Amino acid sequence: MGEKSSKSSQKLAAEQIKKINSFKELRDVLRKYQTQSQFSIKDNNASSVLIERDQLAKIFISSEIFAKEDEVVNYLNKSRENHTCIVCVGSVDELKDITTKYDEPLFQQVCLPITITNLKVSLESLHKLHLLANKAFIENEKITRASEEVKYVLSISRELNGERDIPKLLNLILKKAREVTSADAGSIYTLDNPENKKVTDGILRFRFTQNDSISQNLSEFELPINDKSIVGNAVIHSQAINIPDLYQLSENPMDNPFGVTHDRSWDKRTGYESHSMLTTPVYDISHSIIGVIQLINCKKDAGKSLKSPRDFKAQVKPFGEQHLEYAQIVAQQAGIALENAKMQDDIQNLFDSFVNASVTAIELRDPTTSGHSHRVAKLTLRLAEMVDKQSNGPFGKVNFNVDQMREIEYASLLHDFGKLGVREKVLLKAKKLYPDEFRLVEERFRLIRSSFEIEFLRKCLEFSKHPEKFPMGVSEDDFRSEKNKKIIELDTFYEFICKANKPTVLEQGGFELLRDIANCTFSDDVEKNRPYLLPSELKALSVSRGSLTAEEFSEIQSHVTHTYEFLRKIPWGPKLMNVPQIAAKHHEKLDGSGYPTSSAQADIPVQSRMMTVADIYDALTASDRPYKKAMEVERALDIINMEVKGGKLDKDIFEIFISAKVFNAVKEE
C-alpha cells in the first residue's frame, strides 16, 4: 500500500515538473486543472482560451493572434471596456517585443516552455495583479465620476450666475434642479417679505412650473406660509422635505412624516400622478429663505415620459440621499445667483432712478425745454433699432446689444445735464436783453420822454417871463411841435428796440439804426450826455441770430463739457462705460465745425451721430421753446438735410431717419 502511494506521489510530482511546450498543451493543462485552480473555462478554441475567476476574465492568446497587430488592437479595445486581462502565450523569441510594444497593465505574457507548477504560480500571480488592477480601475472610475459630477455642479454654478434676468434665472434654476435629480416635473416659488418680518407674515409666490410629460400653463399665484402646504412647511421649519410616495400618505396629517398631506385634486384633473416629491428651501448669503424648489417624480430613466399609470409604476422611484444632496447644492447656488440678480436689478433701478432724477433736475432748471431729453432718447433709440436692423451698407456690421442700447438711452437722457453748470439767466434767456436789462431801457426811455416834457415846460416858462430872449415870431406852439417831434422819434426808436430785442434776424439797416440810437444822448439833472443805449445793450441787441451774445453762446456750449466732466465721475462699469463719451459728442460735426473739441468724423461714435440728428430735429420741432415757433416736420427735415449736404451730419444715418420715419416716435405724442 505504501509503495503504491509512493509511486502515485512520484507520478504526480513528475507531472508537476512536466514542461508545457505549445499553446495546445497549455489549453489541455488549463482544461485538466481548472477545478483545482478555482477558475472555469468559458471559451476554448485553437488560438485562445477564456478563463474566469472571481468574475474577472483572462484570455490566453497564441502567437497566431498576437503576431497580427490589428488583432491585438481589437483584443486591447475589448479589454479596456470590461477589464479583461490578455495573456500572450509563446516562446522567448515570439514574446521578445510584445510587452514593450503594448504597455498596458492588463497585457501580460506566459513564456513557453513552462512547467505546470510554474504555470499555476503564474496564474495565481496574474490573478492577484488582475484583482489589484481592477480595484484601481474601479477607484479611478469613482474618482472620474466624482470629478465629472463636480465639474457639472460647477458648470451649473457658472450658468446660474451668468443669468441676470430673474424670470429666466428662475426657470433655469428649476431646470438644473430637475436635471441633477432626474425629476420629471417641478415648481419654483419665491418668498416676498419686504419688511423682513416673521417668515409667516410673508407670502410664497408660485412663479414657474415645468413638466416633461404633460403641458401646463399655470399663471402666478400667492400662497400663505403655513404648515398646511409642503412648501410652507419647508419654509417654516427651514428644512428639506423628501417624501417617497405621496400616494402612501394618510389623510390624517398626524400620521404622516413632517405632518403633511397630499391633495390629489390636481392629479385627478390632469391625469398626472405626483408620487415622489423633494422640496428644498433656497437661501440667500445671510441664510434667509428667499424661495423654494419643489421636485416631483424621480425617474429611473430620465428620457422617459410618464403618460399612463403603468409608466408611473414602472419609472417613478423615491428621491435618494444623493438627489437631496445635489438638489441642495443647486438650491445653494440658486440663492447666490438670485441674490446677485436682485442686486443687479437694484443697481439697474438705482441707475434708472438716478438718470430720471437728473432729467427732472435739468427740466426744473430749464422748464422751456421740458420733455426734450426724453424725446431725444426716444428718437435716438428708435434710430439705433433701425441701424441695428441693417444687413448691408455702411451699417451692415453695426449691432447694438442690450447693454449698448442702455448706453444710448442713458447718454441721450443725460446729454444736456451739463446745463446745470450754466448760469440760469443765460439758460433761460428768451430775448436779446435780459428782463431786468430791458426794464432799464424802458425806464431810461421814460426818463428821456420826461426830459423832453421838462425841457418844453422850462422853455414855455422862460418865454413867458422873458420873451425878448427868443427870436421874433417864436411861440409856445413851436416849442410844443419840437417836443412832439422828439417824442415821435423816441417812440420810433423804442419800437425798433422792442423789435430788435426779439430773437429774430435783424432787418436790413437794423445794425446802423441801433448804432444811431446808441449815439443819441440826453441830459437829466444829474448827468449830461447820457446815451440812449449802453454799450452792453447795443451789443446784445446787435446779435444777428437768436438771443445770445458770443460770450453767452460760448457759455451755453460749455454745457457739453460740464456734461462730460460730470458723467465721467460716475462708475458706470464696463457695460456702460461709453455713456460719457457718447453724450459729450452730440454737438460735434463731421467736418470738425462742432464743439466742444471740433472732433472729425472718425472720432465721433455712431451713437453720438444718431443723437445729433435726433437732438436737432427735436430742437426744431419742439413746441415748448418760448423764443421760437415749432417747425413743421417737413421744414425741419429740410434744414437737417442742408446740414447733411454741408458735410456736417451723417448722410447715411439721416437717410435711415427719413426712410424708417423715425420722427414718428415722438410725432405720435
Number of strands: 16
C-alpha-based Rg, rounded: 48 Å
Subunit arrangement of the protein: single chain
In helices, the fraction of residues equals 40-55%
Give the helix tally. 24
Cα distance spanning the termini: 125 Å
Q: What is the general shape?
A: elongated
Q: What is the residue-averaged pLDDT?
A: 87
Structure description:
It is a single chain. With 669 residues, this protein is of the alpha+beta class. The protein contains 24 helices and 16 strands. The chain has helices at residues 2-16, 23-33, 63-66, 69-82, 98-101, 116-161, 166-181, 230-236, 265-270, 309-315, 321-365, 372-388, 402-413, 424-427, 435-465, 476-500, 510-519, 535-541, 550-567, 579-584, 606-621, 633-645, 651-659, 664-667; strands spanning 19-20, 40-44, 48-53, 56-61, 85-90, 107-111, 114-115, 183-192, 203-211, 221-224, 241-243, 277-283, 289-299, 316-317, 521-522, 530-531. The strands form four sheets. Strands 8, 9, 10, 11, 12, 13 and 14 form a seven-stranded antiparallel sheet that branches. Strand 12 (277-283) and strand 13 (289-299) form a beta hairpin. It starts with a helix and ends with a helix. The mean pLDDT is 87.
Question: What descriptive keywords fit this protein?
Answer:
669 residues, alpha+beta, 12% strand, elongated
Quick overview of this protein structure:
The chain has 669 residues and is of the alpha+beta class. The protein has 24 helices and 16 strands. Strand 2 (40-44) and strand 3 form a beta hairpin.
List the helices and strands and how they pair.
Layout: H1 2-16, E1 19-20, H2 23-33, E2 40-44, E3 48-53, E4 56-61, H3 63-66, H4 69-82, E5 85-90, H5 98-101, E6 107-111, E7 114-115, H6 116-161, H7 166-181, E8 183-192, E9 203-211, E10 221-224, H8 230-236, E11 241-243, H9 265-270, E12 277-283, E13 289-299, H10 309-315, E14 316-317, H11 321-365, H12 372-388, H13 402-413, H14 424-427, H15 435-465, H16 476-500, H17 510-519, E15 521-522, E16 530-531, H18 535-541, H19 550-567, H20 579-584, H21 606-621, H22 633-645, H23 651-659, H24 664-667
Parallel strand pairs: 4-5, 5-6
Antiparallel strand pairs: 1-7, 2-3, 3-4, 8-9, 8-13, 9-10, 11-12, 12-13, 13-14, 15-16
